[in-house]
Design a protein that fits this description.
Blueprint (H helix, E strand, L loop, with lengths): L2 H31 L8 E6 L2 H10 L7 H4 L4 E7 L2 H12 L7 E7 L12 E11 L2 E13 H17 L5 H23 L1 H29 L4 H17 L2 H18 L1
Parallel strand pairs: 2-5
Antiparallel strand pairs: 1-2, 3-4, 4-5
Helix pairs in contact: 5-6, 7-9
Amino acid sequence: METLNLKQILIPYAQAVEELKLKFKSIRYEYLSLDEYSPIEFVTGRVKKISSILDKANKKNIPLTQIEEKIEDIAGIRIMCQFEEDINKVIELVRNRHNKDLVIIEERDYITNMKASGYRSYHIIVSYPIQTAMGERIVLAEIQIRTLAMNFWATIEHSLRYKYKQNMPESIQERLNNAAQAAYKLDLEMAQIREEVLKAQKGFQTQSNTVGNIFANIHSLAKVLGEQEMNPIYEKFWKLWEEDSVEQMREFNVSLEELLREKR
């Protein structure tokens, strides 16, 4: 199989990555639009490089003619979560799509069963249909679900593995193992303060929404009130902004809405 053909083969995989990224980003957007906490923090994706595909095929003795059937992570997306508890929610989101727009082939739990290297993540292998100019193609894709701490460690470890290949210095491996334990402890600590973090984030989102509503109402009032009538409103807003009181901001917004109704 020529390299040129491999490039052609990778086209639907790139499409699969973009579509899957968009679907899970849309889920995050839906949560946030409803002022709800999203278990998805952010989503990334990539298509495996040709050199990496060939290295994996060589390592696993996979014939080049069977690359698409035997290499499951040519297309891959990563879904990052703030907390380890969120991972189960994301897993359910993926499972709920089974037999709808994707088919789950296999699940691999490297969180409960951490790899010897310290790697922790949850992998779901799926088959995903792509509509191409030549008709429908079914491609395999890997969905990795992990916390930010897991992802930080995995990114560093991947870079070092790439640099040293199979000759990782013992001292570096030991430091990686220590870092893996530190990442694990960080997830445990974050789990302990999860409720406090969520309360803080919810408070910030509530304040942001309230300020957005105030701006919209002020903008509408400026169209029907004169400059002299608007000045006290501006002054009131900046005073409340400095006091940083969400409750007073809400009350101020209610008064703006009432004033707007009177002027219409």
